[in-house]
Amino acid sequence: MPEPHRIPADDLRAFVVGLIEKLGTPADIAQVVATTLVNADLAGHTSHGVMQIANYLGGIERGWLVPDARPTVIRELPGSAAIDAHSGWGHYTAKWTMDRLIEKARVTGVACASIGAVQHIGRLGEYAEQAAAAGCVGIISVAWGGRDIGPAPPYGGVSKSLGTNPFTVGAPTGDDTPFVSDFATTAVAHGKIAVARLNGTDAPADSIVDTNGAPTVDPDAFFDGGALRIFGGHKGYALSLVTCVLAQLNGEYDEEGRRVHGVYMQAIDIGAFQPLETYQRHVRSLMDDMKASETAPGVDEVLAPGEPERRARDRQLAEGVELSGAMVTHLRECAARAEVDPLC
Question: What pTM value is reported for the model?
Answer without folding.
Answer: 0.94
